[in-house]
Amino acid sequence: MSTSNRLIARLLMTTVLAGAATGLLAAPPAWAAAPTVTASENESDQVLFEADSVEREFDDGPIIAEGDVRAYFGARYLRADRLIYDPETDIVIAEGNVSITDANMETAFAGRVELSGDLRDGIAENFSALLEDNARLAADSAVREQGARTRLNRAVYTSCNVCNKDGEPKTPTWRIKALRVTRDEERKVLRFHHAFLEIAGVPIIYAPYLQTPDPSVERQSGFLPPDIGASSRLGFNIELPYYLAISNSQDATFFPKYTAKDGVLWQAEWRRRGANGYHVLSGGVIDAPNDTTTPAAFTESTPGVRWHLFGRGHRDFGENWRASYDFERISDKEYLRQYDVERRGDLRQELDRSRTNQLRSNARVAWNEGGSHLTIDTYLFQGLRTQQNRLAMMEQGLGRIDDARTTPYVLPLIDFRHDFNSKVAGGAVTARANIASLYRTQGIDSQRFTTSLEWDRDIITRGGHRFNLFAKARADVFSYQDLDQGTEVCFSGDAPCAIGFPGFSETDTSDITSRFAPTIGLEWTYPLAREFHGAQLYIEPRVQLIASPTGLNDDDIINEDSQSIEFDYAGLFDFNKATGYDAFEDGQRMNIGVTASAETLNGFLVEGSIGQQIRLQETKAFNDSSGLGEKSSDIVGSLNIEYKNKVGLENRFRIDNNSGDVQRAESRAYYRGKIIRAGLSYVRLNEENIANNLVKREELTANANIKLTRHWSVGGGWRLDLDSNQTIQQNFSVGYEDECSMLGLTYRRDRTRTRNVEPDNAILLTFTLKSLVN
Questions:
Q1: Is the Cα torsion angle 767, 768, 772, 774 positive or negative in sign?
Q2: Per-residue pLDDT tens digits for 104-117
Q3: The domain containing residue 665 runs over which residues?
Q4: Which end of the chain, C or N, has fewer beta carbons within 10 A?
Q5: How far is residue 456's CA from residue 453's CA, in Å, rounded to a whole number?
């Protein structure tokens, strides 16, 4: 064959490939080295075509390329043993080990392919395709129509591996066999006609019609894996989610939960994300039947419509303003536990409030510009403590009783901070202001205004000593109304214990008081590090001296926002350890502590800390259970041991300075191996203060997960109340996971009870067939 004929063949093939609209060819590999022939000046029309031999018997005859035929067009790539192009019929035929890969790295294989000249339509024999997310599609034959739809006969679909690690064929975990399959690339769906779902080669379910999202799409409307369970509270229950892709910027999920005992809990979530904001709303409602087993005297919420509503979002207005919200409300205190409702997905928080004793709703407006920061907040609270807890507290004449009449709402809480650019005496200066207004339906209303000016400077000497000097001048003004009605902390039915409140009298139930609280302090630290026989050693002693006037926490100030404090080493060097503004750490005191660590080359790490506060005077800023306030505070510290991030022991403790008893201890041991992962946690809390919702407890929690085989694992958990030697919760699970499926079976035993909710035994089954559901 002449050189001119060879060039004609290449040009003709270039013209054919340049018209490809199927997206079936991919970029050439780095090892490919062959001449490039250009069919036009447009770079998109450039094609690379090579073969061991190219023949053409006569000028108008078909072009035949044989022997490792390779063709490249843009980001598309074709390989075959033999390729024939007939200009007269405008048909391209590829035979023998045909593979076609597109720009999305999806590869189709066939024994023989017959295509139209523009490659839009065609027929393939012994067809198979490797799609995204490891999905595989095979058929006896495939017909491509209009460049956007492929029809397959006697097809099989799976996302499981079809060969073992040695390359031998194996039966996939699951697959769908169908008489006909249509892959619609425009609508991004796979449609199965007369389909069987097989699990481990055994037919399980027949469906005359089945549709699933194409593996190439990230999101598409469709059903999600169901959660199936049974419990003593709800009976048999099943949750079947449906995902709805509304647009590119918003979607919704409907997840109704059927319960044999209470009917259907209708639930849904809506999300929207835009250039200037993000919103997510979630809610549920159920018409609960009448409970004839619980005496009416012990029932806080009457049967009927029960519901929950969660939400979170923000909207930006320009570069400096943002409005945001985060709310959670429920119909009654027992609702969350009864139906296992929690914040999901984007609404989930590090501390899931659906498992605590209080729900909080917040709306905020924030402004930031330069060194100035302004936030305006409002808060609504909903208590979840039950009637049983309330009666016990009322019998003692104290404690939070979660009466909606005395639960405050904050409207507004304004906080402003300005950081000055210029330094004063070498230190940074910050001005702050805070306004808080609390209102109750029946209880004390209060307003507070706080302003402060702060100065802070760090000095580091050549010898490595670090000195921090700070000073703060703060002024507070408090105003109270309805002092005769009490608060949620001090309330006993119709006889509020408000006599001790400031300004209380039979004729005058309001009061205004003020406070000026200056503070100066000096902190010294001296971090030291060295290497010793290959080990890295570190030690840092730390001393903080602080002086403030005494007597700044008299009874004429009601502590609304600083009632709870967790005293540990991390907060030892806060010069004011009060969590809010109503309490103020006054007097002259010294905080002292030391941290140290040692790490060896083989991965062994030991680190610890210990410290204490020494005071010249006692203070009323903290309650007796906090470990603070006396001349010598409790001793706080930590001790952690770890080896190669596999085995570790973490300890955090607080020891009573007078008796030596452990007031608070939190310990956790863990092991993270390839086969076994286990943890053991111990919590001891000796402090007890009902007003601050602190209850003496001692608990032990253990959990473990063991990998039995490559795919199978078992796990379990156990939580024990050591005071009563009673189990709080137990769970046991069996799981299976491979490259294409997940299966989990969990048994849970919850022994906690309230006035209206009994202990629960539950079984939950979850399963997912990857790529089959969205």
A1: positive
A2: 777 889 999 987 76
A3: 527-669
A4: N
A5: 10
